[in-house]
Design goal:
0% of the residues are buried. The protein is mainly alpha-helical. The two termini are 51 Å apart. Helices cover 30% and strands 5% of the residues. The chain has a domain of 64 residues. The chain has a two-stranded antiparallel ribbon with strand order 1-2. Strand 1 and strand 2 form a beta hairpin. InterPro entries: Ribosomal_mL41 (IPR019189).
């Protein structure tokens, strides 16, 4: 039995992982790419000899600068919304008023999609 063309080609459809990338590829948590800059790579290197197997390099370690704590605490912006905050009746109506009473069902969504498609076809002609 012969292999398929896709199997024999160089392109692979599997996701790119750090193990499958080149020696500089570091996937991480998207912190390796600095906005407006170049890719910084891994924050250290593997060491052949020695007690530690991985050595961090100070010039490659990412440093995040935050504003002073006093400025954060005095800011009107807060990081999370409290569980005791509820929508008023007007706000709830503005958000959920467009939906049908029982929620949006699959049949209703299909009907809306067909309606939009027919309107788009009419506009094109």
């Amino acid at each position: 039995m012969f292999s398929t063309v896709v199997r024999c080609s160089k392109a692979s459809r599997r996701p790119l992982t750090p193990k499958r990338g080149n020696k500089d590829y570091y996937k991480g948590t998207r912190q390796a790419f600095l906005p407006g800059g170049h890719r910084t790579g891994a924050p250290g290197k593997h060491v052949i000899g020695g007690k530690a197997k991985y050595r961090l390099l100070d010039e490659k370690v990412r440093v995040f600068v935050a504003p002073p704590v006093a400025e954060i605490e005095s800011s009107p912006l807060k990081p999370y919304v409290s569980r005791s905050v509820y929508l008023s009746k007007k706000e709830r109506q503005a958000v959920f008023g467009k939906l049908p009473a029982g929620g949006l069902q699959g049949a209703q969504l299909l009907e809306l999609a067909r309606k939009r498609m027919s309107e788009a076809v009419v506009k094109q002609t």
